[in-house]
Amino acid sequence: MAEGELVGQRVVRIDSRAKATGEARYTADLTLPRMLHAKVLRSPHAHARILNIDTSKAERLPGVKAVVTGKDAAGVKWGVFRYTRDQELLPAEKVRYVGEDVAAVAALDEETALEALSLIDVEYDVLPAVFDPLEAMQEGAPQIHDHVENNVNIHVPIEVGDVDRAFQEAYLVREDRFSDTEYTYCQTEPYAVLVNYDSNGNLEIWTPNASPHTKAKALSNLLKMPLAKVKVRKISTGGAFGGRSDIFPGEFIAALLAIKAGRPVKMVYTREESFTSVRQAHSMVVDLKTGVTEDGRFLANEMKVVLDGGAYSSTGPIAVSVPFLVWEETYRLHNVRFNGYRVFTNKPVRGMYRCHGRSFMGGLGMQLDMIAEELSIDPAEIRLRNALRTGETQVTGSRIISCGLTEAIEKATETSGWKEKRGKLPYSRGIGMGASGMMVGFPMGIRGGSAALLKFNEDGGCTLISGVVDNGQGNESMVVQIAADVLGMKMEDINLVSSDSEITPLDQGAYSQASTFVSGNAARGAAVDAREQILNIASDMLDATPGELDLKDGQVFVKHRPEWNVWLGKVIRKALLDNTPVVGRGSYMPKVDLRREWVSNPKGQHAGTFSFGAVVAEVEVDTETGQVRVTNVTGAHDCGFAINPMAVEGQLEGSVASGGVGASLLEEHSWDGGQMLNATMLEYKVPLSVDMPQITPIIVETVDPEGPFGAKEAGLAGSMNMFQAVGNAIYDALGVWIKEFPITPDKVLQALEEKDPES
Amino acid sequence: MERQLIQLKVNGEERDVVVSPNETLVEVLRDRLELTGTKMGCGEGACGTCTVLLDGKPVRSCLTLAVEVQGQEIVTIEGLAEGAELHPVQEAFMEHGAIQCGFCSPGMILTGKALLDENPHPTEEGVRRAISGVVCRCTGYAKIVEAIMAAADAL
C-alpha cells in the first residue's frame, strides 16, 4: 500500500486476537514465584483520628509475612499538583472517608490475609463528619484538612469582559440550577496490583493504568527511589474512562508490603473496594445565568459550580475547570464569569470521568433549549448561531485550527429527521439534541508530549517502541496502523512494544483525549524518519535520488521504473555494515501555552486542537412508571480523520451507553452518611444490551492541520453531548424540565405531578 | 474446611484438583488450573464476566461451586478455538470491532456461542436478550450484537 492507503481503513485491531482467545493478561491473572496475597483494613468511620493501631496479633498469625500501617508510610503526602499534596496514601493520623486504607497484610494466601485483618485493633477518636459540599462550605462545618478553611479545596475564578453590563444589555436573561449525584466508572475489571521488589532495589508494578509513566513518577517520589528503579510494566487494562489516571493507595501499599516482605505481593480488590476505595465521579451543583440577544446569541454568561470532591484533591484543579472549558470550547462567548469550587467532604475521592459533570453539560444544553423556546428559535438553529468555527479564538485564548461543529449539527439533524419530528411526536415521545467541543490534550508540562522509536531488523521487519497506552480504545492498533501506512508495510509485520515506564519513552497517557493526536503524531514521526533513512541508503544501491524512490511491501523501488528495486532486508543489512543502523525517531509536543495553569493562570492556548460533536436522541417515556427509554441516537462527531472508522464508531457507540443511558438515566450512588449503600453491581445499575437504543454514528472529517493524517479524538464529546440531548428529548416528550441527573423514574413522576397535580 | 480431591472435565481434559468445598468454579479455573481467560468482575453473579459453558449452557462460574460440577463438560474461552482455528464467534468479534478493553469478551463470546448452538438464526432482539446478563462498559453493545448476528450467518 502507498502512504495514505492503510489509514482510513476498517482494520481488525492488533490486540483483538489475544482478547478473543483469553490469552490477554490482566493484572489479577499474573502469578510470580513466592508471591504473597494482600488485603487492606479499611476505615469504618467517615472522619476519625487514629489513636493507636495494634498489629501484634496479626503479625503472629502463621502465614502472615508483612503488616504495614501509616507508620511505615513515613507521612509522605501525594497530590497530582505541587499545591495539592494532601493525601497520605496510608494515613498515620486521620481517616477521612469510609473505606479509606488503614493497615494492610501480606500473607501466603488471601484467606490468611483476611483473618489477619480481623486481628488488627484500631483505636479511633470519631470526629464530626460532613457529607454535603454546600454544608461543608459553611462556617462551623467540620474541618477535614487542617490547612483548608471552609473545606474549599480548589477555587477557580475566571472573568473575561464586562459581565454585569452585558447582562443589563441582554434581551433575555435566564437563571437555572442543575445538579447531579455521585456515580462511578464501574470498569469491568476491578482494581488489582502486583508488585515485585528485588534485592537490587528494582521495583516492578503491574496495575491497570492510563499512564505507566505517571504512576512510576508518583511512586518514585513517594518511595524516594530513582525513577529508573521504578518500572511500571505493560498490562492489559479492563477499561479506564478517566478512572485509572493518578496514583492510588493500592500501588503504594502493595509496594510497601513487597519491600517489607522481600517477596512479590498481589492485591486484588473486591468489587465493593473498587467502588469505594479507588475513584468515583464528582457530584455537582451548577448555577447558570445566561443573557442573550434577541436573535439568541450569547452576550453574558455566568456559571457557579460546586463539586463534591470527597476527601482528597486527586485531579481536582482539572475537574473543577472542565465545566468552564467545555463551555468555551463549544460556543462563542464574550463576557463570562466562572467560579468553580471543589469542596472536601467525608466521602471517597473523586476524579475525572468520561461523563464528568452531567449536570453542567446537561444544564448548559437544556438552558439553551429553554432560551430557544422563549425566543421561538429552533434548538439546532440557536446552536448553529453560537457554534465556534475554524479560525476563531475561544474566550480565554485558545485558537481553533479545525472545527466541524456546524457540520456535525447539520448532519445529526438531517439524518435523524429532526425537522419532521421535533415538537411533532405524540405525547410521551420526544427528540432532543446536544452539542459540545472538547479539548484534545491539555497542558501537562514535560508530561504533555510523546516520543516513539522504530528499529528495523535485518529481515526487513521492525519494532515500534511507543509510550502509547491502551485501556481498550484501540490506541495500540492506531500507532501501528499509522506506522505501517507510512512504511508501506502490513500491520502484522510491525511489532509493538508499549506502555512500559522503563522501556518506552515518556507519553502523556490515555487521558485528556490525546493519544491519537499526540502519540499518533510521535509514531508517525518515527516511521517517517525511518523511511527517510531507508530511502537514503537505498538511493546508493539503486543509483537514484531518495526523492525518486518509494517503499512498499518490503521493496524499495524507483517510482518511474518499479523493476529497479531492492529488498528492504538488504537495505537494512547495508545500513548495519555502514554503521548507520535504521532507527527512526519521532516525537510530538502539542502546541499549547505552557504558562497556562488551571488555577493561577487560566488563559492562553489550552490544547493543541479540539474535537466537536452533536447528537440527536429520541426517547419514549412510560408515564405510568416514569421509565425513560432512549430509542434512537444519531451521533455526529468531528474526529478530524478516522484512522480506523470501526474504532471511531466503537467509541461513539460506547459513549451513548455511558453518557446517554448510564449517566443520564441510571447511574448514581446512594448513601447513609458516608456509607455507600450500593457498592455492588447488583444495585449499581449500568446499561445492559437490552437498554440500548439504535445508534447511527456519523463520522465528520475536518482533517486537522496538526493531527496525524488529520486525526484528533473520538472518545469524549459523544458522551458529553448525551445528557442534554436526553434532557431536552424528555421535555419534548412531556413538557417538563428535569434538572437533576440521573433522570430516574421517581423524578419523572414527580415532575409530571407538579405539572398537573390532577393527574 | 476439609479439602477433597475432585475430577473436572475442562476443555476436553480430565483434571484432578484438590479443593475446599466452598471454592467456586471461577477460583478453581483461575487459581488452580491456570485458566485465567475466565475473568472475575463482581463475584456475585451480576456482571456475567465469569461466564463459562457447563454442558453447553452459559453459567456464572462465580456462583457455581467446583464440587458441584464433577462429571459435567466445562468449556472456557481457552477451549473454544481448535488449534489456530478460531471459533466463528471469536472471528466475528475481531472482524466487527466488538472487542475494546477485552475484559468482558470471554464471557460475551461464550454466551454468544451458547446462543447460536441453541438457536442458529436468532433475531437481533434475541441476541440482545441472550447477552443481557453480561456487562460491557466500552462498546455500547452495538458491535457485539452485530458480531453475533454475523457469526450466525457464517455458521
Structure notes:
The complex is a heterodimer of chains A (759) and B (155). Chain A is of the alpha+beta class. Chain A is built from 19 helices and 33 strands. With 155 residues, chain B is an alpha+beta fold. Helices cover 32% and strands 16% of the residues of chain B. At the A-B interface, helix 1 and helix 17 of A face helix 2, helix 3, helix 4 and helix 5 of B.
Number of helices, counting only DSSP H or I runs of 4 residues or more of chain B: 5
Radius of gyration of chain A: 27 Å
Task: Determine the CATH topology of the largest domain in chain A.
Answer: Aldehyde Oxidoreductase, domain 4
The topology string of helices and strands of chain B comes to: EEHEEEHHHH
Helix tally of chain A? 19
Shape of chain A: globular
Structural class of chain A: alpha+beta
What's the CATH topology name of the largest domain in chain B? Ubiquitin-like (UB roll)
Number of domains of chain B: 2
Could you name the CATH homologous superfamily of the largest domain in chain B?
Beta-grasp domain
Oligomer: heterodimer
Largest interface, Cβ cutoff 8 Å = A-B, 55 and 56 residues
Tally of extended strands of chain A?
33
Give the N-to-C terminal Cα separation of chain A: 66 Å
Low-confidence stretches of chain A: none
Q: Which CATH architecture of the largest domain in chain A is right? A: 2-Layer Sandwich
Strand order of the largest sheet of chain A: 3-7-1-14-11-12-13
Strand content of chain A: 25-35%
Question: Summed up, what is this model?
Answer:
The complex is a heterodimer of chains A (759) and B (155). With 759 residues, chain A is α+β, with helices and mostly antiparallel strands.
Describe the structure using short key phrases.
heterodimer; A: 759 residues; Aldehyde Oxidoreductase, domain 4; Aldehyde Oxidoreductase, domain 3; 3 domains; seven-stranded mixed β-sheet; six-stranded mixed β-sheet; 26% strand; globular; B: alpha+beta; DNA polymerase, domain 1; five-stranded mixed β-sheet; 5 strands
